[in-house]
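Our consortium's second objective concerns turning raw sequence data into structural hypotheses that experimental partners can test. To show how far this objective has progressed, the report includes one record in full. It was chosen at random from the queue rather than selected for favorable results. The single chain below, 306 residues long, was entered without modification.
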Amino acid sequence: MKTLTYLLLSLLTLTGYSQTIKRASINSIGFTSPNVNFTVGQYMAGNFSSENSKITLGFQQPVRIMLDTSVSIIGSYSICPGDTTVIKANSSPFYTWFKNDVVMKSNDTSLLRLTQKDTGVYRITYSDGLGHFDSSRKVVITQSPYPRPPSPIIYRDTSGYLNSNYNSGNQWYKNGIKIDGATDYKFKPLENASYTVTTTQNGCASIKGSSYFFLVTDIINLGDNQFIKVTPNPFSSNVYLHFFLLKYNTLNVDVFDLNSGGMLANRKMLNTGTNLDIAGLSSGVYIVKVYSSDLKMTYTFKIVKL
């Protein structure tokens, strides 16, 4: 932040009234005081008249008026493949962009969006319109020598964690939203949702890989060591029905499309450990209905085909 100091003619204030202040030597644009926000420049006060009173000039005193010469950088100075860096000029009456000391005449915006092909030395000159300027802000943009890393691959371990194939640089997302603090190579989901992960290697970030729909539980516990389970879930080829029930030795299974509700498979009188034989299904989410032949016991699962 660069500080410019000028003289401002102070005004004697009169309760209930306001004063008009005019910019000297430039124009007669008026500003209302008190509580006026002065822009950079030199000011003088003029008399204010009303039907009931007249306010006269007071004394001179120095006033500090700030010229904001900072530049905001969003992104990296060394741009990776496919990435964008934004250079933004902060508030100032006038500014001019330069690239490699050549005026960017066609650019009339307060920000520049740069990609790998836009390497160079960028400079901005700020001016207050009164002959005062600052051109000290320079930004050097280079091209990263590193490639964009391949998207991470997600797999689920036997402890219920989702794992990235990268040991470091990970960021996990739930339903497309960043999970704060989830930067380890593994993540334990607590909700049924779609999870993705990105990785940053050598300063370059990957794009998100394939999503993984995680089911917090895919087993139904019925007490007395009784259970029903469809595993693995998600599955890519074979998926099996496992159960232990005191009253039933076999179960029936129907598989439905999640969106249409249409039945896609019907399996009758299955023993525990039976392959449901639905490897031909397309990738997606399906509903599995497991029930006894007397219909006194019915449970449903969501399963995911990769």
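The partners drew two points from this record. The first strand starts at residue 2 and ends at 11. The two ends are 55 Å apart (CA to CA). Both points have been shared with the crystallography group to help prioritize constructs.
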